């Protein structure tokens, strides 16, 4: 095939994917939206109609659509970065001494299990109990040092500085009744390596880091390539840590919708109550016209369902998976 023909083929693929996302976003924008997270006051005020996506390919080409310039906070997506940071600094086996790798089927902020059994490790690092434990294990003695370690890792993944949205932080800090209760249960069972208040301060600050869909797609791409950044040609995270993280995202990343998400979308992904979804398509789709080398995905749609996952973001992803026939198994 001549170069001209290849270029035309590529243009056609790019055109089709852009057209696909534009059409879908326009369609979902007109649908009733649902509500943003209500329990964090500052998130309640966000426009529930926002919808955006980013798809980043290993050659650096990025497809951005919808409200992609709108920043939002990581919320539970920070659990992925904190877990990776804890594993990088303390070693995965040390971290897994404190937190298990089992899905729960319970809501992300459930306290239930701690009432039922004495001293039980949090089920996994993708739910609040596990993420609080992980936050307490981060390197550093003060919350500021712990936060800085994770922020530093995140900045190196997306190659830019990030900031913490102080309004969102304050708003969650003042109303974190349930997370405070959860941290107290964990402390009672010796499942926190720092104090209740220091752990909460670390965790909530990390939930309040601001990013956008392009940043999520960058993280997704690095995860899809087992820790390697193909654009800068550097290994940022050790591959075994990324593989473990992706398995946890696949089995536990979408809270108590993780099973359905795995069955019908089938990608390692992580959502947050701000409406973000981080996704990674591994480079295992041989001969796929668009995604044979994998990609990173970032989605944003702040209206969430009862399990805390973006309603329109999940639908958009489901459509993409179906139309582009993305089957990683
Ligand atoms: N900061 C939120 C909380 O702890 C994050 C939860 C989420 O995104 N599911 O409640």
UniProtKB/TrEMBL annotation:
Traced from the root, the source organism's taxonomic lineage reads: Bacteria, Bacillati, Bacillota, Bacilli, Bacillales
HAMAP family given for it? Glutaminase
GO BP terms in the entry? glutamate biosynthetic process; L-glutamine catabolic process
Keyword field: Acetylation, Hydrolase
Subunit relationships: Homotetramer.
What Enzyme Commission number(s) appear in the record? 3.5.1.2
Family annotation (NCBIfam families): Gln_ase
Q: Which reaction does it catalyse?
A: L-glutamine + H2O = L-glutamate + NH4(+)
Instruction: Tell me what this protein is called.
Output: Glutaminase
Identify the gene encoding this protein.
glsA
Q: Which SUPFAM superfamilies match?
A: beta-lactamase/transpeptidase-like
Where on this chain does substrate bind? 76, 128, 172, 179, 203, 255, 273
Q: Which family does it belong to?
A: Belongs to the glutaminase family.
- Which Pfam families does the UniProt entry name for this protein? Glutaminase (PF04960)
InterPro entries assigned: Beta-lactam/transpept-like, Glutaminase
Which terms does the record give in the GO molecular function aspect?
glutaminase activity
